[in-house]
Amino acid sequence: MSEPTSYDLHASTHVSATPDEVYRVASDITRMGEWSPECTGGEWASGEPGTAGATFKGHNRHRDDVWTTECEVTAAEPGRRFAWAVRSYQPTPDNSVWAFEIEPDGDGCTLTQRFQMKQPPSRLVSIKESLPADRAATFYEFRRSRLQQAMQQTVDAIRDAVQR
Description:
Number of strands: 7
Distance between the termini: 47 Å
Number of helices: 4
Shape: globular
Largest sheet: 7 strands, antiparallel
Radius of gyration: 16 Å
Helix content: 25-40%
Structural class: alpha+beta
Strand content: 35-45%
């Protein structure tokens, strides 16, 4: 059986705040390093910051590996959804898409982070190919598990920041 290479991940948490309050924090890519264990921050590159079509650079780190991605905002719906597609290393423009989705929920809302990847980008393929065979055999599953944990940490940290 071959290792799955596509991802459709999500992590959610309840936030005791309005959807608009949560959106303002979750959509601020310049602060992402405060919440994410992998993304160290972002900077706007072109377009009106925070709007669909705007581009930004996302800076990332895992252990000693540091990289930057170029991304484009694909949805900017205040109080509902903020999404972006990663343009770096991708075979197609919609290959890797990240989103924060916000739904009203009782005394606040539910914040969900989603990540969908259709096939591994060239950067992940290169990393896998550089590994010993035993580690390469489970690399995509390792990455999936690490992303799932990081996404939960991220939404929990955003919740804590908003509820302060």
